[in-house]
Design goal:
- The protein is an alpha+beta fold.
- The protein folds into two domains: about 1-75, no CATH class; about 80-145, no CATH class.
- It is about 20% helix and about 30% strand.
- The chain is built from four helices and eight strands, in the order ββαβαβααββββ.
- The chain has helices spanning about 20-25, 50-55, 65-75, 85-90; strands at about 1-5, 10-15, 45, 60-65, 95-105, 110-120, 125-130, 130-140.
- Strands 3-1-2-4 form a four-stranded mixed beta sheet. A four-stranded antiparallel beta sheet has the order 5-6-7-8, with no helix packed on it.
- A hairpin with a 4-residue loop joins β6 (about 110-120) and β7 (about 125-130).
- The chain is globular.
Length: about 150
């Protein structure tokens, strides 16, 4: 199954078991109304795409398993963005912070930090655990318009 945005900056091709594709990405799945993570328009889905469209999205088209595609649409990022071991996090955090996506929890004096964007545009996404803050995704700048792997 292909999921392509009309902005032509995001396209994935889920390859694998047709039943898994249907259950995780199909019309009756939680991603039936999936939106482009780049421009927020609804994604177009098809079992095949014509050669002209394929050529126009070739620079951003990613072949993924159904499970990997599901994780991308859930905001978990591409497989290489989920390598968040301590050494990688330290190397990314060894630069100035550009911005922090945060909000105060209503009725409290506490803040939730969703993500931290570094000087080079790399973004660390955070969650909370019983052990402390958890980095679950590291997104390089413009991840949907480049197939380059993070260089961290």
């Amino acid at each position: 199954m292909f999921l392509v945005c009309s902005c032509l900056q995001f396209a994935i091709h889920a390859v694998g078991d047709p039943i898994e594709i249907r259950e995780l990405l199909g019309a009756d799945s939680p991603h039936a109304e999936a939106r482009c993570p780049e421009c927020k328009k609804q994604l177009q889905r098809a079992s095949c795409i014509d050669p002209d469209l394929h050529a126009r999205v070739a620079s951003v088209l990613r072949d993924l398993t159904p499970h990997e595609a599901h994780l991308v649409l859930e905001g978990m990022g591409f497989p290489e963005e989920r390598d968040c071991v301590a050494d990688v996090v330290r190397s990314v955090m060894n630069q100035k912070v550009r911005s922090i996506d945060a909000h105060t929890v209503r009725g409290t004096a506490r803040t939730v930090i969703e993500s931290i964007t570094m000087e080079d545009g790399t973004t660390l996404f955070l969650s909370g655990t019983g052990w402390g803050a958890l980095v679950y995704r590291i997104r390089v700048p413009k991840p949907f318009v480049s197939k380059e792997l993070p260089n961290v």
